[in-house]
């Protein structure tokens, strides 16, 4: 990613983020991470989907390509870079909660990518209390994650 794009990819100020979440769908990437015969999921610590096992993912920043977003999210949420294997497609996610007080919903247009880790060690970020490899059959995962997993070959 170029220096110019990195400069524009800084976090959005809280008041602007609230307005965005309140008014428009968020464009995001989700990572279906194949590892050791299963898929890596994180136990979410924040809304939406707090307390659920979910794929790593994040919002695409202005002037950031989807591919660049996948690599940034992997480094931030897994502590590793990844190799993109395939694009599963774009999915809509509707939540009846958000991390912002007074905002009672969140809407994502999430493009899911199947990826593999470039390193064996995983380091969870503040959004996940732990990372774990789930093997088929995939029990106790969020319904949106289940949609991704049914599309895997």
TrEMBL record:
Protein name per UniProt: NUDIX domain-containing protein
Keyword Cytoplasm found: no
GO MF annotation: an example: hydrolase activity
CDD domains hit by this protein: NUDIX_GDPMH_NudD
Signal peptide interval: none
Cofactor needs: Mg(2+)
Domain Nudix hydrolase: 22-153
Pfam family, one: NUDIX
PANTHER family in the cross-refs: GDP-MANNOSE MANNOSYL HYDROLASE
Organism in which the protein naturally occurs: Haloferax marinisediminis
InterPro entries reported in the protein's UniProt record: NUDIX_hydrolase-like_dom_sf (IPR015797), NUDIX_hydrolase_dom (IPR000086)
